[in-house]
């Protein structure tokens, strides 16, 4: 696979992505890239992580809460867990995440919020176990 040339948006997006998700997560994702999904990885790095997550209008803590709520409402379980783990880097607290999931219950339905609460509890247990 040839190495593509990346512009400023990609570089900014990759820095934000690493800051939010952590180097280990991004390194695993980068190592798993194939020729087939490289354009998708470049798209999300530039669109999500540069165009959206790098904007200064709201904090990363707030973006984290919004993202978790949206992913919970959409029942995107793996992404919910990933962004809960990332909240360690964004400043979103467990109380913040609980409040976001309470909003999910009202605006997207109790079953979606209930399921996301289970994911959150499991993810927090994993985080705590790793912290020792």
UniProtKB/TrEMBL annotation:
Q: Name one GO molecular function term.
A: peroxiredoxin activity
Task: Report the residue ranges that make up the Carboxymuconolactone decarboxylase-like domain in this protein.
Answer: 40-121
Q: Which domain of life is it from?
A: Bacteria
Q: Which InterPro entries match?
A: 4CMD/NDH-1_regulator, AhpD-like, CMD-like, Decarb_PcaC
What is the designated name of this protein?
4-carboxymuconolactone decarboxylase
